[in-house]
What we know:
By secondary structure, the chain is mostly helical. The chain is 59% helix and 9% strand. The chain has a two-stranded antiparallel sheet with strand order 1-2. Helix 1 packs across helix 2 (14-23). It is elongated.
Amino acid sequence: MTTREVAKLIRKTPQAVRQMRHRGIGPKRGRRVGRGTLYPRTEVMAWLDAREQADPLARRRAGGQS
């Protein structure tokens, strides 16, 4: 996935995705290809799953509680 595709998926700007990666809070396995960065789709989805698991509100919704 390109940086732009990741940004669209998580509803952020491409610059926000770059900053998250550099701060260590975004998808980490991006590889430079030419002037851009490509992320393996499996890594992006695993990163999103991990963020959801760490979110107490998401866990509560998944458990059926209001």
